[in-house]
Amino acid sequence: MTTDKKPGKKKAASANKPPANKAPAKSVAMKDVVGDALRILREQGQAQALAYLQQLAAAKDAVAVPLSDRLTVLATTVQQGDPKTALALAEKSIELAPDSMEARVLAGALQDRLGDRKASEATMLHVVNAATAKPDQVVRAANLLVRFGPQEIALSGAKAAYEKLGRPLRLASTLLYIAQVTADWELVASLVAQIRQAYQDGKAEEVKESPRTNLLWCDDEGINIQVVQQWSRKSLPQLTKALPPAVAPLAGRRLRLAYLSSDFRDHPTSRLINGMLRHHDRAQFELFMYCSSWDDGSKMRRQIESHFDHVHSVAQLSDENAAALIRSHGIDVLIELNGPTRANRMGILAHRPAPVQIDYLGWPGSVGGRVVDYVVVDDYTAPPEALKRYPEKVINLQKTYQVNDFAARTLPPAKTRAEVGLPAGDTLVLGMFNAINKVHGEVWTAWMQILQAVPNSVLWLLDPGPLARRHIAAASKSHGIGIKRIVVAPRLKEDEHLARLQHCDLMLDPWPYGGHTSTSDALFAGVPVIALAGSNFASRVSGGLLRAAGMQQLVQPDVASYVKTAVALLRSPVQLAKVKRFVKEQVPQSDVFNAVFKTRQMEMACRHALTLAAQGKPAVNIRLSPKALASAQPNAVPAKRRLVLVCGPWSSGTSALAGFLGQAGLAAPGPFFAVNDPRTPATFEMQAFREVLVGLASEQTLEPRVTPAQALAALREFRDGALADACRAAGVPADQPVMLKHALAVLFLPELAQLFDLQLVGVLRPYEAIEETRRRRKWPAHFGQAGATRVYGHLFKHLVDAQTAYCLVRYTDLMAAPARVLGHLAGFCRVQLTQQQQQAALAFVSRPAAPKAKAA
User: Which of 26-30, 338-342, 676-680, 840-844 is predicted most confidently?
Assistant: First the structure.
């Protein structure tokens, strides 16, 4: 038990006998100097703090500590809460003292954190190779360097430095991470034994282990939580601000829901959370995005941003200033998506920018309890006995805590075995697409036993790097497995990865830190996964996903059962085919891919948490009632949005008919594509729809450029992205139809019919009139009769082959008898016309023609 000592007694004791470990006078003065500099930094800025330190360094009575060292200490002090300022201070220190290795280690870590990996690699390589670097600096630099590629330099340098220091416990976990990344499993076992013994001896504080490294070897949830709590106390400031006021009920406004993450880019976390972001009820929730890293310019980044009402970057702000920004926006609930990972900004949460703060998705388990009110779990990842250890309360989602976006996507077509580097024939493929640092000796031994029992099998791994490959080859040979049976796969973009993943017959999950995104990837690709039941959150995620998918028979209680089940399945082609068919046919309908259900649950939980906060009540474990869950559960097949598609070739009058229907009340999202014809001031042709279609097919040849599966995926993305955003912006409810038009749409009518409740309105016009309009507009030949022949061919083929509802309108009838055509179309489109809409529609097609140009 620790008690606070009275200041007077402490002073008296110091006066009688100085403590043996008392720092020298210059260190005390150094601490005071840095404290003053830190105050100036926060109150007046970086320039004033630097000027203060320079003034002291120039003074005759200054403490004999170089200015560069003072800058490094100051940078270290602010690095967690203000990485940008810390990096600037560290770089200034290096400028003043190029041999300052401590400043370089700090700068390299901050460069990585702020997204400049190339600079970070160069900085850490410099430290590892520097003769003046101290051994502990080499170990810390190598810990980051190993992530960038120079594995052999990192491992050899770190091992030598560690031995030179006498194998200190404080650096054991730092070297352990390097050993894990390079698959040096003998070293891993040695270091794990050293760390495990330290915990048994009550030396947890001396280990200084990161929460992430701890999860890679330790499945004791009690130790996991102890480590993350120590990390939280050390890394995050004490709470200093009162909570902002919570307001509930919301008095007619939307709940302000914010997400904070460093992974809003082409990253697994974004690919998962996108499923929740796209399904939030935007009528009830106002969404705020706070990005703490960089914009990678990716398609995923643009898609993520499109779901938010407000997008802000906090990467260049200190924790305090970022929290002030968030607080100024009146956020009700803030969801943090990193947890204690390398690039986290959880220090922002320590300043309490929101009355309710939640940690979700990016970290498996407790985050230490000091800066969040809730973490998100499910019954399997956090059973009742585990919850007793959690310092924070939980939001319990059913049936799995993990959300993903796969229901909104189409699986890319599989590549050939040769294209992905797999052997031809009937060779069985065992996949493992987690990072190699999740693998250790026991895991590898079990997998080698499976390969021994199934001779016609190979193990397919993500490329772990050259040194790791050599270690793996040696470990495989020791089990009698030739290296040719270990196939290395390069890292690919997600769609390419999903295309190759379909060649796996069975995915092998490692332990104790199993697959998370990799498991849901496999299930989406139609690949069964075998996993251990696990004894902490990180080791239970795969098992939880398999149980939610109805595949609990693949969750095994121990390693022997894991091996036995995998071998039996691989030796039975009939049973393996049955399991794979179940994954492909049944799992897509399971809760694993039900992002709408997950989103509604989270929304209800957020409302409940906010209500408790507004009432001044403490957080409690939130578990939705059966009635609430029933109301959150959407229909198995969600209703499709109704789409009225105006079809016809260019120059046939589709713009006139679309404008006619738009005036009659059909929603036509814009902005519209413009043409060089004064008679067509608005084409009613959505620019975003046109861009998608011209990317899928050629206007010149009217031939698709993509496969039907690729077209379906692109059109689904348009439906859920640009079209959904345009409808929200225009206030078009989901149960009301929208109208689109473009000639190329006829090439993709089967795909559009899958995605929408499709109604076709075809516009018929004689070829001679189409040609006359084309010539007047000075358009190429394919926009006239040549193109019209093919467009009509595709349109009528679909009407013959499919059951799509359709209505055909002659352009001459529209212009000659618009009132009769309007009545017919209103009934077909299920539009209730007001008198004002009827007049507007008739006036639209009765507008006078543009004046003819005078002859030259």
Answer: 338-342
| Alpha carbons 396 and 398: distance in angstroms, whole number | 7
Instruction: Yes or no: say if 725 and 770 are a contact pair by the CB < 8 Å rule.
Output: no
Tell me how far apart the alpha carbons of residues 352 and 371 are, in angstroms, rounded to a whole number: 7
Q: How far apart are CA 83 and CA 121, in angstroms?
A: 17
Using DSSP bridges, classify how beta strands 457-462 and 486-489 pair: parallel, antiparallel or unpaired: parallel
Q: What are the tokens at 457?
A: 């099998």
- State the number of CA atoms in the 13 A half-sphere of 813 facing the CB: 13
> Given the DSSP bridges, would you call strands 255-261 and 285-291 parallel, antiparallel or unpaired?
parallel
Going by their DSSP bridges, the two strands 738-741 and 642-647 should be labelled as parallel
Instruction: Give DSSP secondary structure letters for 330-358.
Output: T-SEEEE---SSTT--THHHHT--SSEEE
pLDDT at site 26: 41
Secondary-structure breakdown of the chain: helix, strand, coil percentages, each rounded to the nearest 5: 55, 10, 35
Among 400, 360, 365, CA closest to 380:
400
Cis previous bond, 249, omega within 30:
yes
Identify the pLDDT of residue 248.
Answer: 76
CA distance linking residue 759 with residue 809, whole number of Å: 13
**E strands, 475-559, in order:** 486-489, 506-508, 529-532, 555-556
- Tens-digit pLDDT profile for residues 622-640: 999 888 888 887 654 456 7
Strand order across the 555-556 sheet: 486-489, 457-462, 428-432, 506-508, 529-532, 555-556
Using DSSP's 3-state secondary structure scheme, residue 799 falls into helix
Question: In degrees rounded to 5, what are phi and psi of residue 532?
Answer: -85, 155
**Calpha distance 71→140 (Å, rounded):** 20
| Residues 25, 32: Cα–Cα separation, whole Å | 11
Encode pLDDT of 301-325 as tens digits: 988 998 899 999 999 898 999 999 9
CA distance 321 to 333: 18
Q: How far is CA 806 from CA 13, 700, 796, 812, in A?
A: 94, 27, 10, 19
Residue indicated by tokens 């906090």: 314
Q: Which residue shows structure tokens 């408790």? A: 612
Residue 602's contacts (CB-CB under 8 Å, 6 or more residues apart) are 276, 360, 376, 395, 397, 403
